[in-house]
Amino acid sequence: MAEFIKLYNENPNPKQIARVVEVLRQGGLVIYPTDTVYGLGCDITNIKALERIARIKGVKLEKSNFSFICYSLSDLSDYVKQIDTSTFKILKRVLPGPYTFILPGAKTLPHPFKKRKTVGIRIPDNNITLEIVKQLGNPLVSTSIRDEDEILEYTTDPELIREKWDNLVDLVIDGGYGGNEASTVIDLSVDPPEILREGKGTFEIF
């Protein structure tokens, strides 16, 4: 059974955050709130955890399109090639926020992602997520929690998420009801930038 922890976005309990980080460092999978929908994530440096997420999603890890949840823009240099000033200004203006930005991948990407030409970067406007990533010391690899329901694309109730994922993950965070609209995905690796998915974030940012 998955551990179930209640956290408040306004003031996340440091001891509980530390417990989440401990689970992640041990190779655990965690479901957590963001500024959009709930996400499923693991420590980017833990290969076994990465493989578990890939199996759950039914994809090959090397070909997955998981995004990287970062704490701040200063984390990008390990995962993204040097970006120009105009691109950086866009990122700085809207992050943290409900966006996933596709950026050119660096040569220093972790082993499973070495062949990636691009990576998806997220810095959510959610204190729970940001505190987890800050204490962990490196990004989470993340994917959205989707629902089979034809009307509701994403499960928003933490209790229902817990019921559904209880035997698949190690810890579920109850951060309150989640949203039902995913992040806006913008490809900044091409010129002009391309909107790949219209989501919660306005795409009139250029």
Task: Name the descriptors.
single chain; 206 residues; 10-stranded mixed β-sheet; 25% helix; 21% strand
Outline the fold blueprint.
Blueprint (H helix, E strand, L loop, with lengths): L2 E4 L7 H12 L4 E3 L6 E5 L3 H11 L9 E3 L15 H10 L4 E6 L13 E5 L4 H10 L3 E5 L13 H8 L5 E4 L9 E4 L6 E4 L9
Parallel strand pairs: 1-8, 2-8, 4-6, 5-9
Antiparallel strand pairs: 2-3, 3-7, 4-7, 5-6, 9-10
Helix pairs in contact: 1-4
Detailed description of the structure:
The chain starts with a strand and ends in a 9-residue tail after the last strand. The protein has helices spanning 14-25, 47-57, 85-94, 127-136, 158-165, and strands spanning 3-6, 30-32, 39-43, 67-69, 99-104, 118-122, 140-144, 171-174, 184-187, 194-197. Strands 1-8-2-3-7-4-6-5-9-10 form a 10-stranded mixed β-sheet, sandwiched between helices. The protein is globular and about 45 Å long. The mean pLDDT is 92. The chain has 5 helices and 10 strands. It is α/β, with parallel strands linked by helices and 206 residues long.
